[in-house]
């Protein structure tokens, strides 16, 4: 009861800003969720755990306990108000209290300030874990908020810079949010339009705006630690402000200064939080493994909207489905959401017209299990479906239909049942799907001759020839497939018949023998991968073509003249963000 009383004191006014259908969905979801938790109940209050970490020899900011307590109580109130607004009642994060203040563990680092930076998050956490363990807290199984004392604030000149870790990740079982701390960050400063200050990243802004950005950042990164991925607001949601898990980390409290509508929580994310032990007050089945299947999945186009329906089977049961419509590029920040609550038979329907004209994208369906699990981070879901949108805004589901036609084949390969996969291919009607499946099965093994041996017979797929040398940044060279499920060469919303897997850094060399005239095709990032690469084609050591930086969803055409060229090199280089997820693909490369 004390928990709910504490939250109640932070809520002001009745629910406001509900969109059509939201209260009904919340009520239907809670009927399933709360009903499951009421049977053989396992009630428990799990709290967040807070650390103020400071490098060796650096003093913690003055009065940090009271100031950080105000910040966290404000964020608790934000989550509580949003959950109430959306129809979930008095649910929010739980704060461990030590009298009037939030309990914060002060931990000194092992090294001097100069030895740490923005990438030091894991190192800092490793320093904190044994200290917390001595206090009876297993930080690997809890949700931690680690404030890092690595910022510089000049109170006289009003200049701020920082080099703190500032990211987060987690799920219903636990997580970590790394935050920065600085003396001027205080909810008391959120309403201030003056004084003006200089922020090392955002330039000249008001002290209030600076606080919005960084206190909002705490709320946003905490969302990640609780298991929330990014998403932006749909056009109909924009009347509420900016979605917290989009760019709402920069608008938190804007309404206090009259600078905007502030930040809000989407229904999709409120649904996810409703089953989190912090919000549900229950640990029933928290560590149970989960399974889910979607049968009879249908995607259809009506006007400029994509309609989705299916039958969900889940264990433990699912109380909702969240759909992320994620246009290529922009990572998942520009994904929009729709939600559905399954009926008694597990059937659900949803639709969205919040699509970006002229862009391909990926639909990800996330079942929400009653024990708080979603089966993994959003990028790990097996329910991923490509779509494209014409410049006129009309969706094109041909890639989804192709993926659906290949689904039994992909499933058989995923089970390593090659004989079943071959039987499925034999039963397929002639067409592109059968060609793609056949190429995946062949895996480039038929290539015996180099292009020089091919005698210049035109046109010819480059993957029908043997490379002189091949090197990729992760895994082994692969031709006409990618080395993990779904094995398909998919990029930019298209599925291709042939291609070269080229995780950066990669180089594939071919002996042309001077007998070919041109090479053409496309180059792109494999669907579902969020890296960034640059493609380059060389002939006898000279650059013939180089792409711009290609990121998630990127796809570019190329055509180069290779007359007289003896050595062809296809190069894929990583960019400054490193080699993570740099799944470059050379697609349908054709020699003529």
Summarize the structure.
22% of the residues lie in helices and 31% in strands. It is an alpha+beta fold.
How do the helices and strands line up, and which of them pair or pack?
Blueprint: H1 2-8, H2 22-38, E1 49-54, H3 64-85, E2 97-98, E3 101-102, E4 104-108, H4 121-134, E5 143-148, E6 151-154, E7 159-162, E8 167-170, E9 175-180, E10 196-199, E11 203-206, H5 207-225, E12 242-243, H6 254-257, E13 263-264, H7 267-274, H8 277-280, E14 291-302, E15 305-315, E16 318-327, E17 336-340, E18 347-352, E19 360-369, E20 384-389, E21 395-396, H9 398-414, H10 418-427, H11 432-442, E22 460-461, E23 469-471, E24 478-479, E25 489-491, E26 494-496, E27 499-503, E28 506-511, E29 518-525, E30 532-539, E31 542-546, E32 550-551, E33 555-561, E34 567-574, E35 583-591
Parallel strand pairs: 1-4, 1-5, 5-9, 7-10, 12-13
Antiparallel strand pairs: 2-3, 6-7, 8-9, 10-11, 14-15, 15-18, 16-17, 16-19, 19-20, 20-21, 22-35, 23-28, 24-27, 25-26, 27-35, 28-34, 29-33, 29-35, 30-31, 30-32, 30-34
Question: What do these coordinates show?
Answer:
- By secondary structure, this protein is an alpha+beta fold.
- The protein folds into 3 domains: 45-280, Collagenase (Catalytic Domain) (3-Layer(aba) Sandwich), CATH 3.40.390; 291-396, Immunoglobulin-like, CATH 2.60.40.10; 443-591, NPCBM/NEW2 domain (Jelly Rolls), CATH 2.60.120.
- Helix content is 22%, strand content 31%.
- The strands form 9 sheets. Strands 22, 24, 27, 29, 33 and 35 form a 6-stranded antiparallel sheet that branches.
- A hairpin with a 2-residue loop joins β2 (97-98) and β3.
- The radius of gyration is 27 Å and the shape is globular.
- It starts with a helix and ends with a strand.
- Mean pLDDT is 93; it is low at 1-15.
């Amino acid at each position: 009861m004390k928990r709910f009383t504490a939250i109640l004191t932070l809520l002001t006014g009745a629910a406001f800003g509900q969109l059509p259908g939201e209260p009904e969905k919340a009520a239907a979801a809670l009927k399933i969720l709360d009903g499951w938790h009421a049977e053989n109940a396992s009630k428990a209050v799990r709290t967040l755990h807070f650390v103020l970490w400071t490098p060796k020899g650096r003093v913690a900011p003055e009065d940090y306990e009271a100031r950080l307590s105000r910040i966290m109580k404000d964020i608790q109130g934000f989550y509580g108000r949003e959950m109430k607004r959306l129809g979930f009642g008095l649910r929010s994060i739980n704060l461990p209290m030590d009298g009037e203040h939030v309990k914060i563990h002060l931990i000194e680092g092992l090294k001097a300030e100069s030895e740490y930076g923005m990438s030091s998050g894991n190192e800092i956490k490793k320093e904190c874990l044994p200290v917390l363990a001595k206090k009876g807290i297993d930080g690997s199984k809890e949700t931690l908020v680690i404030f890092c004392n690595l910022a510089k604030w000049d109170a006289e000149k009003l200049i701020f810079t920082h080099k703190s870790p500032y990211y987060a990740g987690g799920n219903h079982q636990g997580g970590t949010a790394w935050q920065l701390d600085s003396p001027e960050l205080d909810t008391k400063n959120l309403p201030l339009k003056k004084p003006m200050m200089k922020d090392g990243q955002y330039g000249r802004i008001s002290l209030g705006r600076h606080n919005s950005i960084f206190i909002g950042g705490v709320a946003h990164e905490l969302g990640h630690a609780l298991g929330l991925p990014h998403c932006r607001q749909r056009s109909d949601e924009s009347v509420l402000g900016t979605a917290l898990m989009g760019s709402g980390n920069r608008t938190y409290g804007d309404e206090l200064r009259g600078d905007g509508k502030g930040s809000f929580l989407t229904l999709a994310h409120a649904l996810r939080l409703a089953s989190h032990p912090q919000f549900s007050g229950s640990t029933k089945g928290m560590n149970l493994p989960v399974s889910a299947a979607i049968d009879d999945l249908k995607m259809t186009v009506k006007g400029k909207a994509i309609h989705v329906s299916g039958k969900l089977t889940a264990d433990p049961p699912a109380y909702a489905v969240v759909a992320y419509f994620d246009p290529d590029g922009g990572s998942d920040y520009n994904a929009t959401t729709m939600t559905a609550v399954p009926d008694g038979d597990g059937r659900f329907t949803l639709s969205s017209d919040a699509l970006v004209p002229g862009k391909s994208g990926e639909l990800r369906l996330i079942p929400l299990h009653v024990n708080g699990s979603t089966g993994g981070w959003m990028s790990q879901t097996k329910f991923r479906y490509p779509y494209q949108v014409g410049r006129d805004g009309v969706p094109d589901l041909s890639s989804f239909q192709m993926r659906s036609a290949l689904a039994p084949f992909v499933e058989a390969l995923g089970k390593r049942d090659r004989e079943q996969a071959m039987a499925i291919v034999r039963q397929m009607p002639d067409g592109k799907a059968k060609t793609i499946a056949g190429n995946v099965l062949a895996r480039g093994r038929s290539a015996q001759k180099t292009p020089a041996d091919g005698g210049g017979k035109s046109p010819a797929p480059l993957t029908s020839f043997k490379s002189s040398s091949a090197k990729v940044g992760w895994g082994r060279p692969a031709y006409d497939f990618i080395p993990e499920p779904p094995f398909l060469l998919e990029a930019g919303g298209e599925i291709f018949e042939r291609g070269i897997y080229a995780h950066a850094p990669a180089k594939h060399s071919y002996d042309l023998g001077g007998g070919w005239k041109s090479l053409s095709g496309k180059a792109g990032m494999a669907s579902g991968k969020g890296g960034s690469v640059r493609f380059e084609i060389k002939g006898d050591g000279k650059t013939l073509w180089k792409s711009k930086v290609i990121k998630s969803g990127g796809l570019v055409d190329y055509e180069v003249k290779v007359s007289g060229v003896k050595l062809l090199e296809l190069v894929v280089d990583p960019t400054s963000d490193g080699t993570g997820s740099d799944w470059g693909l050379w697609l349908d490369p054709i020699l003529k």
